[in-house]
Specification:
Elements lengths: L5 E4 L2 E4 L28 E13 L4 E13 L3 E5 L6 H8 L8 E10 L2 E2 L8 E5 L6 E5 L1 H11 L7 E4 L3 H4 L6 H22 L6 H14 L4 H15 L2 H11 L10 H9 L5 H30 L4 H17 L8 H23 L5 H6 L7 H13 L5 E5 L7 H18 L2 E5 L3 H7 L2 E6 L2 E7 H6 L4 H8 L39 H5 L5 E4 L2 E3 L12
Length: 545
């Protein structure tokens, strides 16, 4: 930080200049980043205010998050960066309410998703009593309210907010195939679309026969792109996109004798001819999904209005259960398998299409395989496909590229960028790799010891970082244009969050610490357009959110 003349104010030392003259020499310039006024970025979709998440341990209360605030707009990528242990992953799990309880508990704050407060009623879920002469707290939980809160979150998870977990090996079930696990997410959030397409499919007719003849003609040319286009037209003629995927793989390697694959194609089209029994099963499942959707709408209304709609919830839930019980014979072993067979085949080829979208080689083989048969990069792509299957409005990516090689990292980042461009999905990217942030983020929030210390557009942060912690992070990055430059490091380590430092939590490691830094936590102040910092070195207006 550039030297600044100081004058005593309120018993401390505050600079007379509002911001430093230049950032650290080690700060790289991001190669690509969307400007702040990008037309793709719209209104706020997620607004986190004063979020506090604690963990109650035998050693004491760990204040993992202690007043975190940030927001994400539609079509925007926000990077959340900081050292290991600063609270990045806890923030992601708090937003999705996946904090393990016990020992963790969201204590206070607001998480507004499209105007609905996801933490509504959290103050009534538990009571706390300090244990005398210790730093421990006895927690009494009210599990009925906790269960109701988790039920309300089903209206948000998946279709509203999806998450790519840091460890795909632990997020996937080892005893189910990839198609079963991705297909379950697909049916849960887009089941009505899948079933209606299957009920309205047209397996025969003049348009279908014309598309088959064109497909056979193109298959002889050994042109993969032309074959995919011909398969797409067949899917349109049959009114089922899964047929396009299936027919492409039937004829992909049959350029020498495509007519020999015609019976296989006829069999694939034959799965679209549903019997009355299968149609009754699909209509029953559609009715169940419709009631589930209404129940989710009730939950969203509860969180938006701040009151329980018990009558609507019980009515929708009881009707859903009635629909399941009315035709109980679908649960009989053997009968249910026969009833689900056309739907399972439909879902399988839609999963193959999703795996194609994340550029997995041999997607048919991968869909039939199990998690232990795949590499780390392949598992990460499967997790991305599962998250994207619901077409979420907000995607939380927790360290999606940390354990991957450079080539796979670049491909996954490109997938996330395409997702934002094509679907307008907002992304919260959690990482400690500042190079990744420079590549894909629009804005950056810097966390330290459970607090957000700086928020800025990505170009402003790299060009002129304000907080001493941000400057230390950027100064530790090697630069290709200065190979002989000695890398700097931040002295010390992240503090013990059971006994966090008073005032600014960074002051024990800060080279510019002042007496006032030990007395009170600095507020988040505005130091430029879209640029806020929590540091007594700056005295702009307090950020109001």
């Amino acid at each position: 930080m550039a030297a600044a003349s100081r004058m005593p104010v309120n018993g401390g030392m505050i600079p007379s200049e509002p911001r430093p003259e230049a950032g650290p020499a080690g700060a790289p310039t991001p190669p690509t980043a969307a400007p702040e006024g990008n037309s793709r970025i719209g209104n706020v979709i997620l607004d986190v205010r004063n979020l506090r998440t604690y963990f109650f341990t035998y050693d004491g209360v760990v204040k993992a998050l202690d007043g975190v605030s940030f927001n994400i707009r539609r079509g925007e990528t926000v990077g959340l960066v900081g050292e290991t242990g600063c609270g990045k992953s806890v923030t992601a799990f708090s937003v999705t309410k996946l904090i393990a309880d016990p020992p963790g508990r969201i204590m206070d704050g607001m998480i507004l998703f499209k105007g609905a407060n996801l933490l509504w009623g959290v103050d009534r879920e538990a009571k706390f009593r300090p244990i005398p002469k210790t730093n421990r707290v006895k927690v009494r939980r009210f599990y009925r309210r906790i269960r109701q809160a988790q039920e309300r979150m089903t209206a948000v998870r998946g279709g509203g907010i999806s998450m790519i977990f840091q460890e795909p090996q632990t997020a996937l079930n080892p005893i189910f195939s990839i198609a079963d696990q991705v297909g379950e997410a697909l049916l849960l959030h887009r089941g009505e679309e899948v079933m209606e397409a299957l009920l309205n499919a047209r397996p025969s007719g003049p348009e279908v026969e014309a598309a088959i003849r064109e497909l056979l003609k193109v298959a002889k040319s050994n042109d993969s792109e032309a074959l995919r286009e011909a398969a797409r037209k067949l899917g349109e003629a049959a009114r089922d996109p899964s047929i396009a995927t299936q027919s492409f793989y039937i004829f992909r390697s049959s350029w020498s004798d495509p007519e020999s694959r015609l019976p296989e194609l006829r069999k694939a089209l034959g799965r679209l001819r549903l019997s009355g029994f299968h149609r009754a099963y699909l209509r029953r499942e559609l009715a169940v999904l419709a009631q589930t959707r209404r129940l989710r709408e009730t939950y969203m209304r509860e969180m938006r209005e701040g009151k329980e709609h018990l009558f609507d919830r019980r009515k929708a839930g009881s009707l859903r259960n009635f629909l399941r019980l009315r035709t109980f014979y679908y649960g009989v072993w053997g009968v249910r398998g026969y009833a689900k067979r056309p739907l399972q085949q439909e879902v399988f080829w839609r999963v193959v299409s999703l795996l194609e979208g994340v550029r997995i080689a041999n997607p048919v083989q991968v869909a039939r395989g199990f998690p232990h048969e795949l590499s780390g990069g392949m598992l990460q792509r499967v997790m991305i496909a599962m998250a994207l299957s619901a077409r979420p409005e907000l995607l939380i990516a927790d360290e999606p590229t940390t354990a991957l090689d450079v080539t796979i990292q670049a491909q996954i980042l490109e997938l996330m960028r395409n997702l934002k461009e094509t679907q307008g999905t907002a992304i919260l990217l959690i990482t400690h790799d500042l190079g990744v942030i420079a590549e894909v983020a629009d804005r950056v929030a810097v966390m330290y010891a459970g607090n957000v210390v700086e928020v800025a557009p990505v170009r402003d942060l790299y060009k002129q970082p304000l907080h001493p912690y941000t400057q230390g992070l950027l100064s530790s990055i090697p630069r290709m244009d200065e190979p002989d430059k000695k890398l700097e490091s931040i002295p010390g380590s992240v503090p013990n969050l059971i006994y966090p430092p008073t005032g600014c939590r960074f002051h024990p490691r800060c080279p510019h610490a002042m007496p006032v830094c030990k007395e009170a936590r600095p507020p988040l102040t505005v130091e430029g357009e879209g640029h806020q910092v929590a540091c007594y070195l700056f005295h702009g207006p307090v950020y109001k959110g």
